[in-house]
Structure formats: C-alpha cells, structure tokens
Design goal:
heterodimer, B: mainly alpha, Rna Polymerase Sigma Factor, Chain: A, 8 helices, 2 strands, about 80% helix
Chain lengths: ~180, ~170
C-alpha cells in the first residue's frame, strides 16, 4: 500500500509520530513512486519558503524598528543621566529660594499682624517668645527701705518710741501755707 | 520562561527571535515591505505598551503573530484596491533597480508563488503562511489561529494541493 498526500505532508512537516514515521521512511526507501511524489511536495514547500524576503533584506528593517523602541520606549542610561542632571541643577536653587521665601513670609506675618502667645503656641509650640510686660503679675518686691518711704509723723513717732528727743526746725525761704505743724 | 512585555530585556529577547518571522508573515499578506515594517512596529508597540505578562515565550510569540496577522489582514481588507495601485507604482522602479538576470528570474518566481498564495481562500492562506514563514508547528498554528491541530493539518494539506494546481497552470 502506498503513502497518500496527507501522510506525506505530515511527514514533511515533521509532525508524524512513531511508529508511523519509521514506517514511512521505510516505504520511501524502496517505493520510487512515493519518492517522486515526496520530492514534488518537498519542491513545492521549498519554493514557498524561498518566495519571501531574505534575512539580509530584513536586517536593516529590524534594526530601524528596534532603534525606534530604543529611542521612544526604553530608558537608556545616558538619556536618564542627562535628565537627572538637569533636574538637579535647576531644582536645588529653586527649592532654596522658595524655602527662603516661605520663611520670610512666615516671619513677616508675625511682624506685620502681631500675635498673642496662644496663637504662637498653637502655630509653633516649641518656640518661646519673650514675655510681654502687660502680662506680668508682680508677686513680690525686694527693695531696701529708705527714709523717703515714711511720712514725717511716722518717723517722729518711731524716734519718740525709741526715747529720742526730737526737735524739728523748719526753714523756708518762702513761707508755705499748708505745712503740717509737728511740734513737741 | 516568563515574559513581561514591557521589560526591556524580555522585549529584546522576543524581538530578536520573532521580528523576521513577523515581518515575513505581514509582508506575505500585505505584499509591501514598507507597510509590513510599519505593521511590525505597530504590533511590537502594542506588545510593549500593554505591559502584558506571558507564561511562556511561545505564548508571547503566538500573541505577536496573531496581532501582526490581524493588523495585516485589516490593512488588506480596508485598502485592497487602493493598496494594489500604490504597490504597482512602487514596485516598478524597484524591479528595474536590481541588476542581473538571475535576480530578475528569482524575483519573478517569488512573485508567482506569492500571487498563488494570495489566490487561496483566507482560511488556507493564513495557515500556509504561518506554516511556511514561521517556525510554528501544527499545534502552535492552532493556538495562534484558535483552531484545532487536526484542522491545521487538513488546511496545510489542502493549501498545498491548491497551490500545486495554481502554479502548474501558470
């Protein structure tokens, strides 16, 4: 029994499994009719395969398309570095300037509009402002007593209690009207 | 090997392995090398931009062949008449640029075979194009075109039979 085209096609495409493959090979080795048909089919397949563009012609096209992806899709190292450098150069001074501006505006707002300590503690809880005088409460006064702090009658009474004889003498250039008279 | 389509390393790997076959498949459908190049670029652009993850190299290859084939068929369908006119104008000077009788004869045979493939019904044409110009086996062609392996086998056989007939008439 000879081989049909379906079987030969499968064999030609390397799709024939064992044991069929060996059987076909065996048959082809002695049957000249099937050999002729096989060679015809092989010729057709080769013709089809050759009826296309060669690898040499495809290569430049392949390179061109790949270049497109290198330029438009891949993150190639030199490109990345350039980008980073630019950002670094432009960004740092810009950041410093804007940071300084923020500080100036912040301080300026306190200078211009003032603030009370409650607001300040809400905004900047870590910072202590100098205490304002109107918010101070005096708790004690530590002052040396002087003679000016006592009235004349108090002084006289004190000296009197200590057993001193006090003689007061008033000397005036222009006599005053309401001068208390303290005479012993 | 898992393939991540927008990974540069994976992309290059698949590109190197498949560009030539995709180009041949597309060129045999659109019959215009410049157009085929554009379509391959389009297919690979979709491949990269969609950031797909393929379980194996073969899956990525099937996907690319399927997309290239569909893009090529769409172009042919949309502009079938228009395209033929442009090709005729484009091809004439090209053919005369080449020197040597042998090249001319080879080109003529090549044209003849491509014309013959073009005459096949689409179902047969696609199967025989993939069988001839890619490294896919029956199973791979089946997976690419969403048909069974035995169906591929029958179509390859029928396509070759028809091609023999067409070519012997010419």
């Amino acid at each position: 029994m000879c081989l049909d085209d379906a079987l030969l096609n499968s064999y030609l495409d390397g799709e024939l499994q064992e044991p069929w493959k060996t059987q076909v090979e065996e048959h082809l080795s002695y049957c000249s009719g099937c050999q002729l048909r096989f060679n015809q089919l092989k010729g057709l397949v080769d013709n089809l395969k050759n009826a296309t563009i060669s690898d040499e012609e495809i290569a430049p096209r392949s390179d061109r398309v790949l270049k497109y992806f290198e330029q438009n899709r891949f993150d190639t190292p030199p490109k990345k570095n350039l980008f980073k450098k630019k950002v670094q150069v432009n960004l740092v001074p810009a950041l410093l300037t804007s940071a300084a501006a923020v500080v100036v505006v912040f301080i300026g707002s306190f200078v211009l509009f003032g603030s009370n300590s409650k607001q300040t503690s809400e905004i900047m809880p870590e910072v202590m402002l100098p205490i304002e005088s109107n918010q101070l409460e005096q708790v004690s006064v530590d002052e040396k007593a002087s003679l000016d702090d006592y009235s004349l009658s108090e002084i006289v009474r004190y000296l009197d209690s200590q057993g001193y004889a006090v003689k007061l003498e008033l000397k005036t250039v222009n006599p005053l009207e309401d001068i208390p008279q303290n005479e012993e | 090997m898992k393939i991540q389509s927008n990974d540069e390393h994976d992309f290059r790997h698949i590109y190197e392995k498949t560009f030539a076959m995709l180009f041949r498949v597309s060129n045999n459908i659109v019959r215009n090398p410049d157009r085929a190049e554009e379509l391959c670029q389009e297919a690979f652009t979709r491949f990269f931009d969609q950031g797909k993850s393929f379980p194996s190299e073969n899956d990525a290859k099937y996907w690319l062949i399927r997309v290239t084939k569909n893009l090529s068929i769409n172009v042919v369908k949309r502009k079938s008449r228009e395209l033929k006119m442009i090709e005729k104008v484009k091809k004439e000077p090209n053919r005369h640029e080449k020197t040597g009788e042998e090249v001319l004869v080879e080109d003529a045979i090549c044209e003849q075979v491509m014309d013959a493939i073009e005459q096949l019904p689409e179902k047969l044409r696609l199967v025989i194009t993939l069988k001839t110009y890619t490294d896919l086996d029956y199973k791979g062609i089946g997976e690419t075109l969403n048909i069974s392996e035995s169906n591929v086998k029958v179509r390859v056989f029928r396509a070759r039979k028809m091609l023999e007939k067409i070519l012997s008439q010419e």
